[in-house]
């Protein structure tokens, strides 16, 4: 069903319209969130947060824009926030462990999200924007303009991100470091 | 990616040049630009894992979240709330004009302060003057570089008996 019709349904408060939008974009949003965050729980949290934020802000959605890229842009920002929080959490824990007396056993610190087993090693080598740009290009078939809309950058920059990501992956692949 | 571009990319390891090269090439090349690249073996590595395809709908959780926020139906956008497209430009122009006016005022203030006799300039004040033992009037004329003072005997003083 067309996004405009579904959005109109959401504005009228129809539950099935919300559900249809979620079901339509869930896999894509989860896929992007996973490529950036690297684990299932965080990706699901980010996707839920993105849908919630989008539905809450639906009244401010400009109908002349694409709903798809608008939703992805919200999800992208949510994922970045989660990454930042994770980074500061890790930094705080590292500092706390360093200041502990020697005989105190250090608390168990979760592995950084990018080090977990389920994350594909190839993606670890890419920067956040490169990962997302590549994931959107390969998995979702986004154009450079759509990627730029999601990442909030120029179209030419989006092309550069995709190009650099592909170049790095090809190099890794040739070197045989990709354990997939 | 065309082989010539790949060669140039390798020859000059300077990032700004490389970015420019890719941008120019992608915008003009029909082969590399809009058409999607042919599938490559590494693409499998970035495909999402199976759990994403198998995971159930997120809708029940999202619905719960919306209800917790106490807002299940977003208010439709009304025409009154829509921002006028030129408003941002008008605000920016007014801000710029304000800044410009402030700068001009400051400059003018400094210029006045530099003038002789201005707030910070040296002032010449004649309190009293005598010429040949008689009281005199003083006439002061100042330019940027010099001060001229004339003295003339007061006529009424000389007429006294």
Topology readout:
The complex is a heterodimer of chains A (180) and B (161).
Chain A lengths: L2 H9 L3 H23 L2 H17 L10 H32 L22 H4 L3 H13 L3 H8 L3 H21 L5
Helix pairs in contact in A: 1-2, 2-3, 2-4, 2-6, 3-4, 4-7, 6-8, 7-8
Chain B lengths: L2 H9 L3 H14 L14 H4 L3 H5 L4 H10 L18 H28 L15 E2 L2 E9 L4 E7 L1 H4 L3
Antiparallel strand pairs in B: 1-2, 2-3
- Which architecture of the largest domain in chain A per CATH? Orthogonal Bundle
Query: Over all CA atoms, what is the radius of gyration of chain B?
Result: 41 Å
Count of runs of 4 or more consecutive helical residues of chain B:
7
| Amino- and carboxy-terminal Cα gap of chain A | 36 Å
- Structure summary, number of beta strands of chain B: 3
Distance between the termini of chain B: 113 Å
What's the helical proportion of residues of chain B?
Answer: 40-55%
Please identify the top-level CATH class of the largest domain in chain A.
Mainly Alpha
| Helix fraction of chain A by DSSP (H/I, runs of at least 4) | over 70%
Indicate the radius of gyration of chain A in whole angstroms.
Answer: 19 Å
CATH topology of the largest domain in chain A: Rna Polymerase Sigma Factor, Chain: A
Which chains share the greatest interface? A-B, 53 and 39 residues
**Class of secondary structure makeup of chain A:** mainly alpha
Structure description:
The complex is a heterodimer of chains A (180) and B (161). With 180 residues, chain A is mainly alpha-helical. Chain A contains eight helices and no strands. Chain B is mainly alpha-helical. Helix content of chain B is 46%, strand content 11%. Chain B has a three-stranded antiparallel β-sheet. In chain B, β2 and β3 (147-153) form a beta hairpin.
């Amino acid at each position: 069903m067309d996004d405009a019709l579904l959005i109109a349904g959401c504005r009228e408060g129809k539950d099935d319209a919300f559900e249809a939008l979620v079901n339509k974009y869930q896999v894509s949003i989860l896929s992007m969130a996973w490529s950036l965050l690297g684990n299932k729980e965080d990706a699901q949290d980010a996707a839920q947060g993105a849908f919630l934020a989008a539905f809450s802000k639906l009244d401010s959605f400009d109908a002349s824009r694409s709903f798809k890229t608008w939703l992805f842009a919200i999800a992208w920002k949510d994922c970045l926030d989660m990454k930042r929080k994770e980074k500061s959490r890790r930094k705080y824990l590292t500092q706390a462990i360093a200041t502990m007396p020697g005989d105190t056993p250090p608390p168990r610190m979760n592995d950084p999200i990018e080090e977990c087993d389920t994350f594909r090693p190839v993606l670890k080598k890419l920067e956040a924007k490169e990962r997302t740009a590549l994931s959107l290009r390969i998995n979702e078939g986004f154009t450079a303009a759509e990627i730029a809309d999601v990442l909030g950058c120029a179209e030419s920059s989006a092309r550069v991100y995709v190009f650099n990501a592909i170049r790095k992956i090809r190099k890794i692949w040739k070197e045989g470091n990709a354990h997939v | 990616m065309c082989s010539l571009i790949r060669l140039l990319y390798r020859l000059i390891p300077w990032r700004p040049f490389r970015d420019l090269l890719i941008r120019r090439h992608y915008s003009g090349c029909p082969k590399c630009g809009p058409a999607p690249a042919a599938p490559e073996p590494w693409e499998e590595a970035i495909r999402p894992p199976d759990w994403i395809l198998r995971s159930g709908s997120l809708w029940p959780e999202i619905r719960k979240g919306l209800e917790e926020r106490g807002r299940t139906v977003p208010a439709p956008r009304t025409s009154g709330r829509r921002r006028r497209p030129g408003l941002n430009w008008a605000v920016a122009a007014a801000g710029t004009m304000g800044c410009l006016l402030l700068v001009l005022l400051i400059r003018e203030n400094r210029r006045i302060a530099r003038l002789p006799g201005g707030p910070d300039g040296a002032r010449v004040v004649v309190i009293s003057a005598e010429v040949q033992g008689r009281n005199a009037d003083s006439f002061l004329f100042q330019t940027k570089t010099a001060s001229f003072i004339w003295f003339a005997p007061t006529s009424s003083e000389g007429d006294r008996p």
